[in-house]
C-alpha cells in the first residue's frame, strides 16, 4: 500500500507543478495506480478523502498567490 501511495503522491506533486495540465498517459497512470492500490487492500479506498483534502488545500493556496 505504501509503495502505490507514494507513487500516487509523486505523480500528484508532478501534476501540480505543471498546473494540472495532464495528458492521456497521466490519466492512464493514475488509473493503474488507483486500481493497484485498490487490489492491494480493500481499505485503501479510505485514503482518497485525504487526496481530496490535499487537492482542495493546494487549490486554496494557489488562489492566494
Structure description:
This protein has helices at 2-17, 24-40, 48-64. The chain is globular. By secondary structure, the protein is mainly α. Helix 1 packs antiparallel against helix 2 (24-40).
Give the arrangement of secondary structure elements:
Elements: H1 2-17, H2 24-40, H3 48-64
Quick take:
77% of the residues lie in helices and 0% in strands. It has helices at residues 2-17, 24-40, 48-64.
Q: Rough shape?
A: globular
- Report the portion of residues in β strands: under 5%
Q: Could you state the order of secondary-structure elements as H and E?
A: HHH
Q: Kindly provide the radius of gyration, computed on alpha-carbon positions and rounded to a whole number of angstroms.
A: 12 Å
- Unreliable sequence segments: none
Q: Output the number of helix runs.
A: 3
Overall mean pLDDT: 80
- Fraction of residues in H or I helices: over 70%
Q: Mind summarizing the main beta sheet? A: none
Structural class: mainly alpha
End-to-end Cα distance, whole Å, is 34 Å
Using DSSP, what is the number of strands?
A: 0
Task: Give short descriptive properties of this protein.
single chain; 65 residues; mainly alpha; 3 helices; globular
Amino acid at each position: 500500500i505504501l509503495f502505490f501511495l507514494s507513487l500516487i503522491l509523486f505523480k500528484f506533486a508532478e501534476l501540480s507543478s505543471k498546473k494540472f495540465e495532464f495528458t492521456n498517459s497521466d490519466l492512464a497512470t493514475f488509473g493503474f495506480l488507483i486500481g493497484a492500490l485498490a487490489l492491494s487492500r480493500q481499505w485503501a479506498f479510505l485514503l482518497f478523502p485525504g487526496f481530496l483534502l490535499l487537492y482542495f488545500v493546494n487549490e486554496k493556496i494557489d488562489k492566494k498567490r
